[in-house]
Structures are given as C-alpha cells and as structure tokens.
Design the sequence.
C-alpha cells in the first residue's frame, strides 16, 4: 500500500467518531444513500475542515443537486455508445502524481478538429464519473487542478459548447461548493478567443476561489510550469512523467474497473 493510501486510512481512523455520527445522521435522510463508502465520507469531512454540521450541509446539497440535475449524474456507463463516440473526440486523463501542494491533476483535451462526436454534456459527465471513481479508490488529496487543453478546439466545438451552455453552468455551480472535489487551479491551454468567450459566459457562476485559480495560456508551457512541476506532467505538456496516452489508458481502466459502482445511481442519491 502506498504512503498516500495509508494517509487516507489514517484520516479515516482518526475521524471514526465523526464518521459514525455522520452515518447515523445519513440513516435518517430519505434521499441520501446509507451505503456511502467511508473513503468518500472522509473527503466530504475534509472539505469542510471536519466540521460535522457543515459536512451534513455539503452532503445534503450534493445529493439534492444530483437529483435536480440528473442528466449529468445518470446514464453513466463508460461502455455505452455515447461514451465510445465521445472518446473519439476528446482525451481525458488523471495524472498519477500529486502536485507539491497535494493536488490531484487531470486534463481533458480535444482529440482532433472533428467536432461531429463532441458532446459537452457527455464530456462534463465523464469528469464527474472520474471524480466519483477516484473519491472511492484514489489517494487522499488537498484539491484538484484541472487542465483544459484547447489545442484542437474549433468554431464547431465552440458552437456545440454554446448550445449546451446550461450544462456548463450547472457543472460550474456544482464545482463551486457542492462537491467533495475542490478545484484549486483551472488552466486553459491554447486559450483562443473562443475559449475567452466561454470563460466570460461562465465567470458569473464561478466562486471567488475558482476565479482566483483561473489561468489562461495562449502558447507554450512555461507559465504552466510555474504552477505545476514538470515531474507531475506528461511529456506532451513539457513534463517528465510519462505520456498522456499512458495516463488516459490507466484512467479509463480505473473507470472500467468501477463501472458497476458508478452505474448504480443509488450509491449517490435516492428518490423516495
């Protein structure tokens, strides 16, 4: 077992009393599943600085948001035709090494300039699937860095994003205080005028923390390396830690291995 996973187990052990109280409270809630794994519960607690009452509010808000916006949180089979098509249009990877601050790092990029199979809703859904999977199996982290690589982003991609902008707004609202995933930095690579316009549309829905951590890079990786060490990044981003393709294969393998967990909506919300 890695030191990072041992750290997660120690967090759980050190907070057993709070976890028991949290589980007792959950048992009284008709819309919250009783079987939320402690690996997930400890992340909720950590985000709220182990304050039990604030953690209850976060879990309640998370579950209610999932119920209200089910289109982002259901039909999540990574073996489905929708996802197979999506992965011809985008690449997605969670990089294995945490940043020096202890942040997880993930990247989503347009695979090519053909936007015919691109779907913003499915792409956002894929990132949530990854977050839910890694909350169960991933190491303890202090937040997440998201990299959006728009090197192959075209006007046709832009039109599809604008036509689904409500999904992006909902995703932004979710990430701005309704989840155990804490966005610490968001980096846009190859930040064109199209990307700038999308950011402008979404900015009113960003939390202050997200706005403060938002960075646009028009070309090169020098500025990115000021925030993220090269040893944490793949060679495609001027790093030294493997290739994007290797990390994507490992990420998709993790999603596949936890497919049954993700596909069972009752692991995440209940409708009474």
Sequence:
């Amino acid at each position: 077992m890695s030191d990072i996973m041992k750290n997660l187990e120690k967090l759980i052990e050190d907070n057993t009393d709070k976890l028991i109280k949290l589980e007792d409270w959950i048992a009284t809630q008709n819309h919250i599943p009783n079987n939320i794994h402690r690996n997930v519960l400890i992340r909720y607690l950590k985000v709220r600085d182990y304050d039990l009452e604030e953690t209850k509010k976060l879990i309640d808000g998370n579950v209610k948001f999932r119920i209200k916006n089910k289109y982002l949180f259901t039909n999540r089979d990574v073996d489905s035709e929708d996802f197979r098509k999506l992965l011809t249009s985008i690449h997605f990877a969670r990089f294995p090494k945490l940043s020096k601050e202890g942040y997880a790092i993930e990247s989503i990029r347009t695979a090519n300039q053909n936007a015919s199979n691109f779907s913003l809703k499915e792409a956002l859904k894929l990132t949530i699937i990854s977050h839910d999977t890694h909350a169960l199996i991933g190491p303890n982290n202090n937040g997440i860095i998201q990299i959006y690589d728009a090197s192959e982003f075209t006007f046709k991609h832009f039109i599809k994003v604008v036509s689904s902008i409500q999904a992006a707004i909902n995703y932004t609202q979710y990430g701005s205080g309704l989840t155990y995933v804490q966005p610490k930095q968001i980096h846009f690579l190859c930040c064109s005028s199209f990307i700038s316009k999308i950011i402008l549309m979404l900015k009113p829905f960003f939390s202050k923390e997200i706005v403060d951590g938002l960075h646009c890079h028009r070309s090169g990786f020098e500025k990115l390396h000021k925030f993220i060490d090269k040893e944490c990044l793949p060679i495609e981003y001027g790093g030294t830690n493997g290739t994007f393709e290797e990390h994507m294969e490992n990420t998709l393998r993790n999603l596949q291995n936890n497919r049954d967990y993700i596909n069972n909506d009752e692991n995440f919300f209940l409708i009474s």
